[in-house]
Specification:
Chain A is an alpha+beta fold. Chain A is 24% helix and 29% strand. Chain A has four helices and six strands; from the N terminus they run E-H-E-E-H-H-E-E-H-E. In chain A, strands 2-3-5-4 form a four-stranded antiparallel β-sheet. Chain A has a two-stranded antiparallel ribbon with strand order 1-6. Chain B is of the alpha+beta class. Chain B contains 14 helices and 21 strands. In chain B, the strands form four sheets. Chain B has a ten-stranded mixed β-sheet with strand order 14-15-10-9-1-2-3-7-4-21, sandwiched between helices. In chain B, strands 5, 6, 17, 18, 19 and 20 form a six-stranded antiparallel β-sheet that branches. In chain B, strands 12-13-16 form a three-stranded antiparallel β-sheet, covered by helices on one side. Classes of the chains: A alpha+beta, B alpha+beta.
Chain lengths: 104, 464
């Protein structure tokens, strides 16, 4: 069993426009990408529980050509509105770091 | 078709590039020098106030080199999303810099100015005819929203840049523009494959993001051939890697496979990426699906008022351990104290964030039950006018500094305040209220084009 941050090279978050947040998990070898992808841990249900959303608000897209997995979710606050804490959305990745990846 | 070579000077006008990369790029025989100058990432303030988020000095430096290069090689220079958000005020700010450069370089280029700010009556008429719909999780617009809107810009496609070239422009300076369109316009005009043109534009618009080693912004060059395109760095000692180029469509996009543009959608599902030598990556297989309706994205803001902020830290372990209850107690007190000076709860927005607890992630913070040895407290007050926001912020400061809490020993003050004055006026506050798409009758509908020679030619000066 390994944690996601031990297998991935990049785990980042960023705005995809003012209404959405996109989380990219990128790998530097196919084995690690496969292991994470096949484990099924990165499911809409799991992500929804981490980010206080419902399953149908989470979109997960595999991008094999770049050995990457993309997760797109709505922002809780429109970027830069009062109460927002992260205008660029660049620091919302932490809950992903310690996800336990079990072999599928 | 002969290959078409486009140089993106930098990922953002004002973020810079090396002269070495720029000159090497020019020596390859470039057809267009372009640079994107915008982003909505810094938030609604910049569109609302018309303020650039890069410095004038940096923009002038980048533009001077680009314009000199364009004059030398007799090739056009494009700037998209001028001034950051592409509002008329920011376009004029950029135009003024160009005027200065033309004077200094003693040149008389024809400049096409593409203004893309939507007028209030245009917005209302588009709303009423049902031509505007949400782009993501945001509500439908009605006439009220139009009244509340302070500023709205259309994000234009490739066609207005093409029209400017057809009318003989040497320099095109545009308001809010699709990043990729700035680079795709010329290849499309010359009959290049649309899938390749848009995909190339999408990759080079962020400049050096696809370049290694990553040493700040720099020039990147896209070359379109019959059935593929290549990406290479301008700098002779740097390289583009397959992984970086392939990964680039992930960046800041909701999906890496489908990228919506005004005239259609770029489909990258079947694109392939090959490293053809140390420095160059070849891309092929990108597809283009034209859409039946021409749409532009709209970005708009409304004004919310004025902000005052206050920041301080606490190193008291008793306070830190009960910080959530303490903040709650202070919020009640701030409300009461503000009311006592005639400011109702409805007259302001108060946000208090505790750094070291859950300020960054809020309700999503998995470790919010842990205690740090010190925490930072940020007070953010937005009200209709600066005086009201100052008054509420002062009440908040006093309350946080002097309110009792169970077991309190530090009775002379709960906070370490880092500077004097402690409360900072942060000026106007805006909010994105429009993040929609708008159907257009034709690509020029959201654009006002003007052709000018910013530096009057000598003979005209004599005549005048």
């Amino acid at each position: 069993m390994a944690k996601l941050h031990e297998l991935a090279k990049v785990i980042r978050s960023k705005n995809a426009g003012a209404l959405l947040l996109t989380l990219d998990i990128m790998f530097d070898n196919e084995e690690a990408y496969r292991k994470v992808f096949d484990s099924g841990v990165l499911s809409p249900r799991k992500i929804a529980s981490l980010y206080n959303l419902s399953d149908n608000q989470v979109e997960i897209i595999a991008f094999e050509v770049a050995l990457a997995i993309k997760i797109t979710i709505p922002r809780h606050t429109i970027a830069g509105s009062p109460g927002d804490s992260d205008v660029y959305g660049a620091q919302q990745h932490a809950p992903l770091l310690d996800l336990e990846i079990t072999s599928g | 078709m002969r290959p078409i070579k486009i140089m993106a000077a930098s990922g953002m006008l004002g973020y810079g590039f090396t002269e070495e990369a720029f000159n090497h790029g020019l020596s390859l025989g470039i057809d267009l020098i372009a640079c994107d100058a915008g982003s909505a990432d810094p938030g609604p303030y910049y569109l609302g106030s018309g303020t650039p988020f890069v410095s004038r000095i940096a923009v002038k430096r980048d533009l001077s080199l680009m314009i000199r290069g364009g004059t030398q090689e007799k090739i056009p220079v494009f700037i998209g999303s001028a001034g950051g958000s592409g509002s008329d005020k920011q376009v004029d700010w950029t135009l003024e810099i160009i005027r200065e450069i033309c004077n200094e370089q003693n040149i008389y280029p024809k400049v096409a100015v593409l203004r893309t700010e939507l007028r209030p009556e245009q917005l209302v008429s588009k709303i009423n005819s049902g031509k505007i719909s949400p782009l993501g999780p945001i509500k439908n617009l009605n006439e009220n929203d139009a009244d509340e809107t302070h500023k709205v810009v259309s994000m234009i496609g490739a066609e207005p840049f093409q029209q400017a070239l057809e009318e003989g422009a040497d320099i095109v300076i545009a308001g809010r523009s699709s990043d990729a369109a700035i680079y795709a316009a010329l290849p499309l005009m010359r009959g290049a494959d649309p899938g390749l043109s848009w995909h190339m534009g999408k990759i080079i618009e962020c400049g050096a993001q696809v370049i290694e080693p990553r040493e700040g912004q720099d020039c990147v060059i896209g070359t379109i051939y019959h059935d593929y395109f290549t990406i290479e760095p301008g700098h002779p000692d740097r390289r583009c890697t397959r992984t970086r180029v392939a990964a680039h469509t992930l960046y800041e996009n909701p999906s890496p496979y489908e990228l919506k543009e005004p005239s259609g959608t770029l489909i990258t599902k079947s694109a392939t990426f090959e490293q053809i030598d140390d420095r160059v990556v070849r891309v092929s297989g990108s597809k283009w699906e034209p859409s039946s309706t021409y749409t532009v994205k709209l970005e708009g803001v409304k004004k919310l008022g004025f902000r005052t902020v206050f920041f301080a830290g606490t190193r008291d372990p008793i306070l830190v351990s009960g910080i959530n209850n303490f903040i709650e107690a202070c919020q009640t007190r701030i409300e009461r104290d503000s009311k006592a000076i005639g400011i109702d709860k409805e007259d302001y927005m108060l946000n208090i964030k505790v750094y070291g607890k859950d300020a960054v992630m809020g309700a999503n913070e998995p470790l919010s039950d842990q205690n740090a040895h010190e925490v930072g407290i940020l007070v953010d007050v937005v009200a209709n006018d600066q005086d009201t926001s100052k008054a509420v912020c002062a009440k908040a400061r006093y309350s946080l500094l002097h309110t009792d809490f169970p077991g309190r020993m530090c009775i002379s003050g709960n906070l370490a305040i880092p500077f004097s004055p402690s409360d900072l006026s942060a000026g106007e506050v805006y909010e994105f209220n429009i993040w929609h798409i708008m159907e257009c009758n034709d690509p020029m509908e959201p654009v006002r084009m003007e052709l000018i020679i910013p530096n009057d030619p000598p003979e005209e000066r004599l005549n005048g």
